[in-house]
Design brief:
This protein is an alpha/beta fold and about 230 residues long. It has seven helices and six strands; from the N terminus they run βααβαβαβααββα. The longest helix has 24 residues, at about 65-90. Bound molecules: 3-methylbut-3-enyl trihydrogen diphosphate (2 copies) and magnesium ion (MG).
Length: about 230
């Protein structure tokens, strides 16, 4: 079976997971952040090297102030422990997203995690945090114009090299938990050829079985494509 090199997770369903258990939504976010490590371990055991996780979108600021604060608080409390555990596993952490709007404390958690793990090897966790695909592309275009690149000299590589994910392979497989079938502005450029898989389980309950099913589906999709050509 072919194993994808880069899997992107749209970690949806934290709130519903908590509500279903009679807990406040903030508990769902806490469980969701902790679940990243479980998913990373599963992915690595299956041979996936690069994982992208969509933690917070540029649209998520529209949520209630209480929910935003609860999630940012959880990042501050759980982030450093998570970073250390990932470092123990020799995972390199990358941040995709804007720094704008994030508090100093949250930025410190991200910067420390990136700094701590910067010399680790080929296993990568790309955290899409305060991230939007359109905003990322807009920034890439602005950068190209600022460098006074003449229109004809702008290539796909110019754009790809201006993205947060510069140097990473394209996303092979996207797995969205929580049952909704939407991209929600996630890695739009990088996922141009990705296989999409939607799991019913909420993010904190996304299981090894779900991931195995997604990879099986990815593999079957690839076989079909090769037979077509
Ligand atoms: C996804 O879970 C995590 C974030 C967007 C922070 P949600 O918070 O969207 O949970 P649901 O989809 O409302 O259950
Ligand atoms: C997607 O979940 C974004 C993240 C997982 C960070 P949302 O719950 O925010 O997405 P929509 O509202 O369904 O697009
Ligand atoms: Mg949601």
């Amino acid at each position: 079976m072919l194993i994808p090199k880069h899997v992107g997770f749209i970690m949806d369903g934290n709130g519903r997971w908590a509500t279903q258990r009679g807990l406040p939504r903030s508990e769902g976010h806490r469980a969701g952040i902790q679940h990243i490590l479980t998913i990373i371990d599963i992915c690595h055991n299956l041979g996936v090297e690069v994982v992208s996780a969509y933690v917070w979108s540029t649209e998520n600021w529209e949520r209630s102030q209480a929910e935003v604060q609860a999630l940012m608080y959880s990042i501050q409390i759980l982030g450093p422990q998570l970073a250390q555990k990932l470092h123990d596993r020799q995972v390199r952490i990358i941040h995709s997203g804007s720094r704008q709007g994030l508090s100093k404390a949250v930025l410190k958690v991200i910067d420390d995690a990136v700094q701590l793990t910067k010399d680790n090897g080929s296993r990568i966790l790309n955290l899409a945090f305060n991230y939007g695909g359109r905003a990322e592309l807009l920034q890439a275009v602005r950068r190209a114009i600022a460098q006074q690149t003449s229109p004809e000299t702008i290539t796909e590589k110019t754009i790809a090299d201006s993205l947060y994910t510069v140097g990473l392979p394209d996303v092979d497989l996207i797995i969205r938990s929580g049952g909704d079938k939407r991209m929600s502005n996630f890695l739009l450029w990088q996922s141009a050829h990705a296989w999409l898989y939607f799991a019913e389980n909420y993010w904190p309950a996304l299981s090894q079985h779900d991931i195995e099913q997604a990879i099986k589906s990815f593999d079957q999709g690839l076989v079909r494509r090769q037979n077509d050509i």
